[in-house]
Amino acid sequence: MTRLSRRRLRKLARHPLRTVRPLQSGLGVAAGFKRRFVRPSGPYVFVACMPRTGSTFLTETLCELTGFKRVELTDAYAENEQELDVPRLLDAWSYGSVTQQHVRANSRTVGLMHDFSIRPVVLVRDVFDVVVSIRDFLLVEGCGKWPTFFTTDERFRALDEAAQYEQIVELGLPWYFDFFVSWSGVARDGTLETLWLTYESATADWAGAVRRITEFYGLDGSDASVEAALARTTARASSLRLNAGVPGRGQTVLDPALRNRIRGYARFYPDVDFTPIGLGSG
Prior knowledge:
The chain is α/β, with parallel strands linked by helices and about 280 residues long. The protein has one domain (about 25-275): P-loop containing nucleotide triphosphate hydrolases (Rossmann fold), CATH 3.40.50. The protein has 14 helices and 5 strands. A 5-stranded parallel sheet has the order 2-3-1-4-5, sandwiched between helices. Helix 5 links the parallel strand 2 (about 70) and strand 3 (about 95-100). Helix 4 packs across helix 12, helix 7 packs across helix 9 (about 160-190) and helix 11 packs across helix 12 (about 225-235).
């Protein structure tokens, strides 16, 4: 072994990140440079949402209203966890963007949102109605990209209706409770500034929901511009997965024993108020 190679080994031992994590290190430098020297032309309009909450319709309306690009800030929209992706955050830094992601408030996500000055809108829905809506979605659009639990079209369709609801409740709903509890902790601790919306309030008054978001981000949201944006989006509502969700449907469709099983998830979080998703305190 030559002296040069020994010296090289000692250098690598002192600075392992140069070889073990070169990509992460480089991204960290790039992120720091952009945040310091590049002035963004608009905010990240970010909707952290439960699936089946009208988020596609809402964010398309926000794109129509603001002229911002719809941007994916995760590396894929499939069965994967839709975690924030640093290269995509960097790409979107210098212009205004609109994003919807089914993402929980883990420490990595919250840290990146803090670093990139992301103030999320948190969109939730009555959890009983969610169960019914999930089943409708899986039967119509298939199971291939469902993010909260894994199954296939063949397996799901082979179950009877009662078993389908049971699978959704037992395998799919824990993600929803994780989502709600994690974002509730962020709101309680003031880690990030958040704006909370419910599906029920939004669908009852889309214009009011959009105006709340524009006020939150300091964007133009005159009544005329909001109504025009909603008119353009409503004209293609069927392609945006906006169904006529009837509040309270879960209470009538789901078996009482299954509804009690859903309520049982809340017992693990006695300090959390689940009223926004149709439950009381844990």
